[in-house]
């Protein structure tokens, strides 16, 4: 693994968006046992939020009306790096693409509605290429 990148332009230029296999949904109020199947969890004041594979949520009878795809930014962005999330959100907003960003230790993960996946990949690839020029 490379060292974390904190320079804004370098993070954007090196982000190399990659589509993660699978479809996911954000849910709340799920049985505790589903936490083991979750891609991610977050405890909010209102309850536990889970990002579940669509099939798991459907089998549990949970709301699956907004299936999402996950685009992983391959750059090892520094936890104290400034500007990557803002640049990604701004580019996607400019193309009217909703996004939900989950930052983990090594990478940022961008969840977009399934029907906008191709548009989001093109938008993020163009953003990265422009930063690398």
TrEMBL record:
It comes from the Bacteria. It holds the Pfam family ACT_3. InterPro entries: ACT-like_dom_sf, DUF2241. Residues 10-69 form the DUF2241 domain. This is DUF2241 domain-containing protein. The lineage of its organism: Bacteria, Pseudomonadati, Pseudomonadota, Alphaproteobacteria, Rhodobacterales.
């Amino acid at each position: 693994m490379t060292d974390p990148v904190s320079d804004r332009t370098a993070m954007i230029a090196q982000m190399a968006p990659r589509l993660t296999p699978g479809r996911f949904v954000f849910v709340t109020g799920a049985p505790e046992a589903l936490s083991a199947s979750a891609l991610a969890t977050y405890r909010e004041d209102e309850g536990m939020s889970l990002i579940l594979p669509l099939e798991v949520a459907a089998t549990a009878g949970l709301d699956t009306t907004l299936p999402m795809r996950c685009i992983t930014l391959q750059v090892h962005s520094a936890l104290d790096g400034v500007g990557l999330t803002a640049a990604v959100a701004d580019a996607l907003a400019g193309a009217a693409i909703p996004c939900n960003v989950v930052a983990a230790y090594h990478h940022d993960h961008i969840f977009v509605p399934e029907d906008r996946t191709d548009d989001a990949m093109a938008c993020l690839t163009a953003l990265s290429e422009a930063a690398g020029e």
